[in-house]
Amino acid sequence: MNVQTPAPLKASDYKSDLKPIWCPGCGDFSVLAAITKACAELALPKDKTTFVSGIGCSSRIPAYTSVYGFHSVHGRSLAVATGLKMARPDVTVIVAGGDGDGFSIGGNHFLHACRRNVNMTYIVMDNRVYGMTKGQASPTTESDWTESDLTPEGPGVTPIMPLQLALACGANFVARGFSGDPNGLARLIAEGIKHPGFSFIQVLSPCITFRPEQRDWKDMVHKGFEPTSDLREASQRLLDDDMFTSGIVYAGTRASFQVPQAQPHPSTDLAKSFKRATAMDDVGEFMAHAMALENEAAARYDELADGMDTHNNKEVAVLFRQMAEFSRKHASEVAGRAGSIEVPHLAPWEYRWPGNEAPETSDSSVPHYLMTPHHALQVALRNETRGHDFYAQIAATSGDAEVRRLAGDFASEEATHVAELKKWFARFPAPRVGWDDDSDPPNASE
Ligand SMILES: Cc1ncc(C[n+]2csc(CCOP(=O)(O)OP(=O)(O)O)c2C)c(N)n1
Ligand code: SF4
Ligand SMILES: [Mg+2]
User: Fold this and answer.
1) What is the spatial distance between Cα 281 and Cα 260, in angstroms, rounded to a whole number?
2) What atom in ligand 1 is closest to the CA of residue 205?
3) I want to staple 391 with a disulfide (CB 3.0 to 4.6 A). Which of 93, 119, 217, 410 is the partner?
């Protein structure tokens, strides 16, 4: 009998058919991408994986993923998840939500979840605000933030420190990630899921609607934490932290709370796979990058188009949809060029991009729901230019002649895309001043 092995699941297989209604540019889009990438890397069986959430923009994660899900009530996600894990230790339980959900109404549950150390992973998308209910201060909001009508002189109280809290209460894995680094975040989430006990990951995820200044986080977040199992060492790092250091702060050895060990995940050897070569000298690896560059660009354009559709910005939605189609066409052309070259599978964090994401992927914090086609073209032009520069750099530096030849060809193609896009600006002139004025910004209903 001929037994067929099922094809491995891709990150997109873990997304549901529901299109997110988040504001275009919201950090949560990239957190969703990172979560699904981590699931794919760990090959989590869909029938043995569950997302649990509370209420908030960020708490919509279970609806946007295709595994089992429980969109519970405000602040109670950890209670529901604890019950689930105790009843079904064979299921991978991942909890997702916001800073309001997790540290205000759910704060008490957070302390005890850390203390109990049940084997599950808690991802908090921290935007230092209640996004869903239109911008009130949360427990992580800075004491002098004056933009909310409820606290016009600022909350006036010291924000809580979620990582310190988690460490002090006994969480066995403590990390901080950033939505602007979705591949690095995918790695943190994969490590958190694999680590026994309660894993807590604070994700800095900008709310660009009520905290537009958080777009600057991309210049403030920096890598720095290295895992340690020494509590004293981890505590010292947090004392020295500026609230924008990312990485794993603590990976402890405390046994989980009376939960029989689930089967180990058939994961890749993450530690090994993090090793990075220093130059792009392998033609298979180069082609893997070339394909991912276009596929990631297409996925982000689709996401932007969906966001614009949701916010009734049809003209820009059509433009982004068109860009996604171009990227897909280029991806299939690259696949055609690969021919008999053996293209390896790379985990999201194994790609050697010059920045946090593939160079043609739009910066997720730039879009605005009122943006005009002119702005959309600017985004596309920046992407294509980065794509060109990426290939030109490899063409100039690779030690492999075939990689240099292919990279040179691809750089020329990107140059023609750049030239073509520049012509489009004649059709879409710059918008009037005040294009982003809106006296009633969007909010998402529960
Ligand atoms: C018991 C209860 N109290 C209050 C609310 C209103 N409410 C819905 S979401 C939310 C805060 C969400 O903030 P956060 O968890 O930070 O999520 P974000 O929207 O910022 O992602 C509040 C107060 C509610 N749904 N239920
Ligand atoms: S209100 Fe803020 S948190 Fe909610 S979807 Fe919009 S940007 Fe994201
Ligand atoms: Mg929030």
Assistant:
1) 46
2) 21
3) 410
